[in-house]
Amino acid sequence: MRQLTAIDQFIAHADRALRTLSNAKQPTQRPSPASGVAEQDLSAEEKRHAAGLMRVNHSGEVCAQALYQGQALTAKLPHVRAEMEHAAAEEIDHLVWCQDRLDALNSHPSYLNPLWYGLSFAIGAGAGLVSDKVSLGFVAATENQVCKHLQKHLEDLPAQDQKSRAVVTQMLEDEARHADMALNAGGYNFPAPVKGLMTLVSKAMTKTSYRI
Ligand SMILES: [Fe+2]
Ligand SMILES: [Fe+2]
């Protein structure tokens, strides 16, 4: 296979960033778990709340795209590259499923997504520069953080919004698998203060993305 030059890599990463941030519908590997579920009537308030939660989940998926892209740029990961690419492909499914729910709820993705993308890309690339162990540890810690949000969202989503619930349930299953994969591949289990800092950052993201 041809070796990618720095310019090739820059173009590939810029292409992925634009696809993610332009909300262009990317091809998915799996149909949305919501596709087989009937849409129920929701009040205007329930729709607004469900859209806020799905916007947070969508922003989380934007961060996942950026994190995996940043990591692919700098981490070596010879023994888990295939698994990481599989996880990254599943993140595209999640991104599109959340986008579809936001459309169906007559809402929009967060306007702050370019900011979250840039930050997550820098973190992913930075962690990969330190070591594969730190890079994988970062994936595991992030995925675990996402699992906590998704569990909370399953409690908070309107009971009748079975479509959003189907999406979140499948995402929860996938993200837990991604976290296990990263830890089993030798990811560093970060100490509590680092995880606490990540929780603070993710709270800032969820609070703002819920509204804008
Ligand atoms: Fe995801
Ligand atoms: Fe994930």
Summarize the structure.
74% of the residues lie in helices and 0% in strands. It is mainly α and 212 residues long. It has one domain: Up-down Bundle (Ferritin), CATH 1.20.1260.
Can you walk through the features of this model?
The chain has 212 residues and is mostly helical. It has a single domain, classed as Ferritin, CATH 1.20.1260. It contains 7 helices and no strands. α2 runs antiparallel to α5 (132-156). The longest helix has 31 residues, at 44-74. The radius of gyration is 17 Å and the shape is globular. The structure holds fe (ii) ion (2 copies). Residues 61, 64, 91, 94, 171, 175 line the site of one fe (ii) ion.
Secondary-structure blueprint:
Elements: H1 6-21, H2 44-74, H3 81-104, H4 113-130, H5 132-156, H6 162-184, H7 192-211
Helix pairs in contact: 1-2, 2-3, 2-4, 2-5, 2-7, 3-6, 4-5, 5-6
One fe (ii) ion is lined by residues 61, 64, 91, 94, 171, 175.
